[in-house]
């Protein structure tokens, strides 16, 4: 079956540091890949997505590249801010990303210190 | 920006009791979902709903769970006889189409004592 593995948290960084949150997946076929973010007290929000190999999703300074050869979708940001503190979830869908369910990782809690 | 709203934000119930979690999806969305996250574990898919019927459900979604769209705006998850292990954060989501991004609510934290 499908599965998503992401690095354990919490990840604590100083403001302006470089961020990488690792995500690898196991799936049948050619899944779509997503990063969702959950800010304190809020619901999950789609941060970025990629639907095929070598696609790069980007939003709010975050990027992730769909690497089929390494089955990875690592999240990166060049210079983090305190406001980026949140829980980040990597997810996949093998049905186009909507109906019939996403498979999520456990989430990585990111803490950015001023 | 329209959003998915869930009520209540926190529900405490005793084991064996029935509980109904409520969601108001975004008004022009047609696909609805429930997910849950047990503390410290993954967000897990429970069920998807379209055209007034369940389109898919996971193994977690057994006979004690049911979903309903009782009117044009609400989407509910009922747990018939709660167990301690049902304690979790329950997220509702909706989307315009099967391939559209999901929009999630803020979640309902269910505590079963």
Annotate the secondary structure layout.
The complex is a heterodimer of chains A (114) and B (113).
Chain A lengths: L2 E4 L4 E4 L4 E3 L1 E4 L5 E7 L5 E7 L5 E4 L2 E4 L9 E3 L8 E8 L9 E2 L3 E6 L1
Parallel strand pairs in A: 2-12
Antiparallel strand pairs in A: 1-4, 3-9, 5-6, 5-10, 7-8, 8-9, 10-11, 10-12
Chain B lengths: L4 E3 L2 E4 L5 E6 L6 E7 L5 E8 L2 E5 L7 E4 L6 E5 L8 E8 L7 E2 L3 E5 L1
Parallel strand pairs in B: 2-11
Antiparallel strand pairs in B: 1-3, 3-8, 4-5, 4-9, 5-6, 7-8, 9-10, 9-11
Descriptors for this entry?
heterodimer, A: 114 residues, mainly beta, 6-stranded mixed β-sheet, 0% helix, B: 113 residues, 7-stranded mixed β-sheet, 4-stranded antiparallel β-sheet, globular
* Main sheet makeup of chain A: 6 strands, mixed
State the helix count of chain A.
0
Series of secondary-structure elements of chain B, N-terminal to C-terminal: EEEEEEEEEEE
Q: Termini distance of chain A?
A: 41 Å
Can you count the helices of chain B?
A: 0
Question: What does the average pLDDT of chain B come to?
Answer: 92
Oligomer: heterodimer
State mean pLDDT of chain A (0 to 100 scale).
90
User: Which percent bin holds the helix content of chain B?
Assistant: under 10%
Total count of strands of chain B: 11
Written overview of the protein:
The complex is a heterodimer of chains A (114) and B (113). With 114 residues, chain A is mainly beta. Helix content of chain A is 0%, strand content 49%. Chain A is built from no helices and twelve strands. Chain A has strands spanning 3-6, 11-14, 19-21, 23-26, 32-38, 44-50, 56-59, 62-65, 75-77, 86-93, 103-104, 108-113. In chain A, strands 2, 5, 6, 10, 11 and 12 form a six-stranded mixed β-sheet that branches. Chain A is globular and about 45 Å long. Chain B is an all-beta fold and 113 residues long. Chain B is 0% helix and 50% strand. Chain B is globular and about 35 Å long. The A-B interface holds A 4, 34, 36, 41-46, 49, 89, 91, 95-107 and B 3-4, 6, 31, 33, 35, 40-45, 48, 50, 55-56, 58, 91, 93, 95, 97-107.
């Amino acid at each position: 079956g499908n599965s998503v593995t992401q690095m354990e948290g919490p990840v604590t960084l100083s403001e302006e540091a470089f961020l990488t949150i690792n995500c690898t997946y196991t799936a049948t076929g050619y899944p779509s890949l997503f990063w969702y973010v959950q800010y304190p007290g809020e619901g999950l929000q789609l941060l970025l997505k990629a639907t095929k190999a070598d696609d790069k999703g980007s939003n709010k300074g975050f990027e992730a590249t769909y690497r089929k050869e390494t089955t990875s979708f690592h999240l990166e940001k060049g210079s983090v801010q305190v406001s980026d503190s949140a829980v980040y979830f990597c997810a996949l869908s093998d049905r186009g990303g909507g109906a019939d369910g996403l498979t999520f990782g456990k989430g990585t809690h990111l803490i950015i210190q001023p | 920006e329209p959003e998915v709203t869930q009520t209540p934000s926190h529900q405490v119930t005793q084991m064996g009791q029935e509980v109904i979690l409520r969601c108001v999806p975004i008004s022009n969305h047609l696909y609805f979902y429930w997910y849950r996250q047990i503390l410290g574990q993954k967000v897990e898919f429970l069920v998807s709903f379209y055209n007034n019927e369940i389109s898919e459900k996971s193994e977690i979604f057994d006979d004690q769970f049911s979903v309903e769209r009782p009117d044009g705006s609400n989407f509910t998850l009922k747990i018939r006889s709660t167990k301690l292990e049902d304690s979790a954060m329950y997220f509702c989501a909706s989307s315009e189409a099967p391939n559209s991004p999901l929009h999630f609510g803020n979640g309902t934290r269910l505590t079963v004592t």
